[in-house]
Each structure stands twice: as C-alpha cells, then as structure tokens.
Amino acid sequence: MSEISFSHVQTAHCESGVISNLFRHYGLSISEPMAFGIGAGIFFGHLPFVKVNGVPGTTYRIWPGAIFQRVCERLGVKMQSQKFSSPEKAQQELDRVIAQGIPVGVLSSVYYLPYFPPSYRFHFNAHNLVIYGKNGENYRVSDPIMDTVTEIDPASLSEARFAKGFPEPKGKMYYPVTMPADISLQKPIKQGIEQACHYMLKIPVPMFGVKGMRFLAKRLKHYPEKVGDRRATLYLGNVIRMQEEIGTGGAGFRFMYAAFLQEAAGVLQQPELSKLSLELTGIGDLWRNFAFHAGRVCKSRAADNISYNELGDMLIQCAAAEEVFFKKLSKVQL
Amino acid sequence: MKQNEVPQDGNNLHDGTFKQLFYAVDDAGKYTPVSSVGWEPENVAMEQAWEEVHARVEKARQRVLAGELSPVGYYMEKNLMDLTLLASYVGKFQWQVKRHMNPRVFNRLSDNMLHKYAAAFKITIQDLKHIK
C-alpha cells in the first residue's frame, strides 16, 4: 500500500482540527483557531426539546459541519464529499482514494472508536478524523483530539462510519480536490467575524446566541423545583460537560475564539482586535468560574434553590459580558 | 486563563492515558496550546453522567431478573442507546421495539429478529437470551 506522510498535530476541536491538519498537508497553513474563526464557530444555543439521554442540549459552537463548509467556501477550497448506501461501497471508495496518496476526512461516531478514551465514548455521531493510509488490514488514523496518530481495524471503522442515530454519518468522507495557490486571509476573517456577530446577537429566536444564555439562565434557576434534585444535577452536569469537555479548548470555545482574534489582529494589522481578544479571555474566565461553582453544586448534590439561583445569575453575567463584547466586535472597522 | 492556570486535575476515568488541549495565554499575553490531564468540574460532571448510566443499567438488570423486562431493555441501557437509536439499528418501529421489551413477546421472537438484536448489541444470541 502507499505510504502517505501526514503531519499530525493535536488540536482541541475535531472539526477545526481536521481542517487545519488536512489543509496543512497541501501546504495551506492555517491554525486551528484561525479555521474556527473563519468558520464562525463560536455560538451559543440551549435547546430544551432536543434531549440527549433525557437531558436538554446545550451547545457553545455552531452545528457540526458548518465550520468546514464555511472555511472551504471562504478560502476557495473545493472539496469532494461523498456519502454511501453501504459499508462495502464506502470502504472500497476509501481504499481507492488513499491508494492514490490522498488523506481522507471521515465522519464517525465516537462510540465505535476503540482507541478513544472510554469515558468519552457516548453515541456522538459528528466526530471528524483523518484516514491517511493502511498498515496491512488496519487503517492509519490521525484523530485531531488524540496526541499521536493511531490505527483502527476495518470493522470498527465501518461501524463508526455507519452508526445510526442523529446525524447519521452514512459513511461520509471528504478530501480537497483543488486548493488555491495563494490565499489572502483578510476577507475570510472579516466574513467570519461578521457572521459570528450576527449569530450571537441577531437571531430572532430566544434559544440562540446571547439570548440563549439568558434563556438557559432563567430555566436553570428553576431546575430543582421543576425536575427534582437528581435530574437537576444531571442537567447542570451536561451544561458543564458541553463547556469543558474535549473539543472546546476550555470555557466553551471562548478561549479558542480569543486566540483567533489575536491572530487576526496580526493579519489585519488591527490592534483593536487584540484588545477584544483580551476582553474575551476575561469572559472565558467568567465561564470557567461558572463551571467551577456548578461543579461544586453537582458534587454536593444538595440542590438548594439558592445555589441554582446564583448559577443563573452568573450566566446572566456571562450573557451581559458577551453582548457588550460582540457589539464592540461588530463595530470594529475591518 | 494563563498558561500556568491550565488545570491538571487527573482522574481515574481515563487513567492518565489521555490529554486534551486547551488554549491559554503565556506571560507575554500570547495564546498558546497547552495540554491538560483534566479539570475537576468536568470530571465531576463526567463521573455523574456515568453513574447515571450504571444506575440505569442496574435497574434494568433487576427488572429483567424480576421478569418485568426482556433482555432487550437491559442491553439497550448497557449500550447507552435509547429507543430511537435501537429501533434504527434493528430496522423496526419504536413501538415494535417497545413491545419486544415485554418478556412474553421477547420469548416468541424469531431467530432472525434475535439475530438483529444480537448484532446491534454486538453479542451472541446466547448472551442475549441469558443476561449476566
């Protein structure tokens, strides 16, 4: 089989990480925070009716796939992306492409990845990783959230690519077909920032953006009386996990976005963005403070309304800070 | 978050075999990736999520032993699935899967159907019929 030399760098988030790793292979060097920022990955949403194992969903980033699609569009990268009707066809096509020396991104469920840390193996279907070759039967894997490259057996890979549930990966695989010779990051950065501000401030639905934080705050205050102590800690635990689990870079992607703004300040020669990066770092620390206290409430299990009330207030504080922040960001002349 | 504030709270959930990446600022105020073995609040939330899973599995196990639930219900919990997910794995409607959780209905299932469940749970038909 062909040997592809693939340089693997561990990243915080799988989607922006795969973009960064895959593009670097073609000589297009963009950092993970840069990919995250251009793709306007930062977001907030609280969806009480979308329940995962009976617990309402909270997200700190845009929906899966959006970052990828936006980055490709803004940088002018053409991707070949395919889904398959059967695992056999999917494997054949994967074999054919990697035999040509092309590393391939695949969508998978983490539940079926044997190398994944066991405690993270829930049925989460939107994980991205890169297959860059074969070693005998096994596939060589560059999984952006792992610190080194690894291998996976064909059966597990097939299961992971054809997991059921939502969203169904259906064996989705993708690889770049044309890369622009030279790119300018200026316009993509501007578009990314503009879009992020729009999503955080202007969506006319109470569940999304800054409004979504207030929405969650209001509901969170009433968790103990609404769903009982036990479920209240589970609900709260999920808010923490979505904020601090692998893939977020800490503080629900806020630090990653701050890193992007810092880098963007250099590219655009716009010191204002540096200042805003600093401000967002402060907001990230607010989020961490919230998680810290929420963790204590979860641990003590003694849910009293006072602690939930205080946590709600902390969220409202985060919301206020982010509202100010994104308003400033939207007014920066880029 | 400063570089030296990146939490390093190990836990026994992933035996120190796994490190995740954080973005933090160094002394000069520049963002840099820093690897971390974990953070207490996340560990607490994660442990709690697994405790909930284990409690549900155990409850299902007791119900199977008491003859109130078929092994389908037990293995569903054990594989962290819900009704929607399991139904799509075996290619049935949710109400059908729900029915199969009744021990009396389960005992009359065809080999073909049992095979589908065993495949979804990645176990043998023997194990499917007799839970441990």
TrEMBL record, chain A:
Butirosin biosynthesis protein H N-terminal domain mapped to chain residues: 13-144
Spans traversing the lipid bilayer: none
Any Pfam family: DUF4872
InterPro entries: BtrH_N, DUF4872
Start and end residues of each DUF4872 domain: 156-329
Protein's recorded name: DUF4872 domain-containing protein
Species of provenance: Chitinophaga agrisoli
UniProtKB/TrEMBL annotation, chain B:
Source superkingdom: Bacteria
Name under which the protein is recorded: Uncharacterized protein
Protein's organism: Chitinophaga agrisoli
